[in-house]
Amino acid sequence: MNNVARASSTSAAGPGRYAPLAIDTDTFRVLGHQLVDQVARLLDAVPQGPVTRDESPSAVREALGLNGPLPNEGVHPSALLERMADLLFQHSLLNGHPRFFGYITASPAPIGMLADFLVAAVNPNVGAWTLAPAATEIEAQTVRWIAELIGVPATTGGLLVSGGNMANIVGFLAARAAAADWDVRATGVAGAGSRRLRVYASRETHTWLQKAADITGLGTDAIRWIDTDARQRMNVDALRAQLDGDLDAGDRPCCVVGTAGSVSTGAVDPLPAIAAVCRERGVWFHVDGAYGGFAAAVDEAPAELHVLHLADSVAVDPHKWLYAPLEAGCALVRDPERLRAAFAYHPPYYHFDEHATNYVDHGPQNSRGFRALKVWLALRQAGAAGYRRMISDDIRLSRAMADAVQRHPDLELTSQALSITTFRYVPADLRGGIGTEEVERELDALNRALLDRLQREGEVFVSNAVIDGRYVLRACIVNFRTQLADVEALPDIVARRGRTLRETRQARA
Ligand SMILES: Cc1ncc(COP(=O)(O)O)c(C=O)c1O
User: Atom 5 in ligand 1: which residue has the minimum CA distance?
Assistant: First the structure.
């Protein structure tokens, strides 16, 4: 009988207790080694396979055997784990693939994979210091290190959250509590003595803002969408005019949001000028750096990104440019007391030392996982210099991609900023008509169909953007596994698929 076959769930839990979830130590060790070996093998094979497979939801359900009811009887964990690892790799989109350029999801660092395993073994509840002494202190240092990396004071408050949306929402809630000169937490946004709260952001701002305005009770109509310039950056004169008009009308600005790396094109708003406008009017300045915030650590980033210390709050996203496996966002608030002022309550059922760091008082979550470990370990493994190099390389590769796109006769480059390149397929016969309504309509349809084809075929994975009303393809590199060869392969792959599609559409017309 081998170790696995010998597994006895009853004996693992001890006498007198039936615990089918318990696994004895020897079996645990064998299962763990087998899983790590299998995952290492599967990870090795990722670059040779497709980024994703073209499967229908029902095919995925069928392959994973997900159609049955909840089984009454359990099974041995060995077969379960082995099969699940194979199935997950076969039927998942693999964002660790060197040719995954879609959206802004990082290639996960191996140390983060191992960290999540370690975290689950200890399972600290990082809501309170007493429940998670080591984890709380590591999270606090992670926040300080992140602050240091992006050039904000180490005294900044903050905490790890699920991602960019939540990091922004935490900043937004801190701003809301600070902006209202009535007790907004008790009486709400329309409480006695309230004024209409307003928020200001460019039209390129990510949709977290609508969610924040919605769930915090301001309503999405409270958002003042500020126009952008030709490079998708906020027009600061328009911001100033809107703010002053609203102040004259008696409204209360809640915050101005500047974006440090927009989701569509990587545009960086004129953050120093926005900071000055906020300072002059005493308005909270929040920066959404979910994508581009970490680029503040490198010289290649635009100069306007190197001013995050001017913000009252900043959202960054370690599961983007720190290559942490999902989920890990980070909210930073310059005055740590602002976080407590927005989130703390002191219920009678908690006996927590008020002088210790109890993250339950700093954010919306109560029980909290130890997200910081995967970030801390990765920061420790690569060091600040290692991260600077990886982020710089992503930016350089994106620029190389833009050059390769520009050199290709069938592609039109539309933008390149940070590590995002946008472009579209323009067949020779349509080139002369660019700008005319009919040709633009055909190019939109063609590129939309092309994106669909590329995503389904999985040779490379890109996403899309709409720039000045034009539908374009978009490649974002937050992927330390991507090489120059991957970047240079993209234009031909896209153009080849584009040609086939164009021919099919012409034959159909
Ligand atoms: C600029 C920006 N803000 C916020 C978000 C939301 O981040 P998350 O998906 O981690 O919640 C994204 C995601 O791409 C983003 O690019």
Answer: 164
